[in-house]
Write the structure tokens for this entry.
Amino acid sequence: LSLNLPPKLPVLSGDRDKIVLALHNLMGNALKYTPEGGKVEVTVDADDKRLRVDVADTGIGIAPEEAEQIVALARAMREAAALVTRPLDPSVPPAIQLRLCGARQP
């Protein structure tokens, strides 16, 4: 496990439990599906308004067709959530961005 962290992290506002769950799932899956001797790298990039966490690994990955389904499902969930909840200030960017990397190559 390799961690690449900035010297200082911003204070985040948001649902702590959901953020922890998302990070736990990303890192847990990376560790679970990376064979012994493989690599898991967590890189955090931050500025005053955003925190970005990238988790990359040498595990089995996700088949391209499954990755497309995951992206489509995530998009549908975001669109549905936007119908129910509106941000107080739409000009403020999200506090955290998570990106799932490492789709398996064909």
Notes: The two ends are 26 Å apart (CA to CA). Residues 80 and 86 are 11 Å apart (CA to CA).
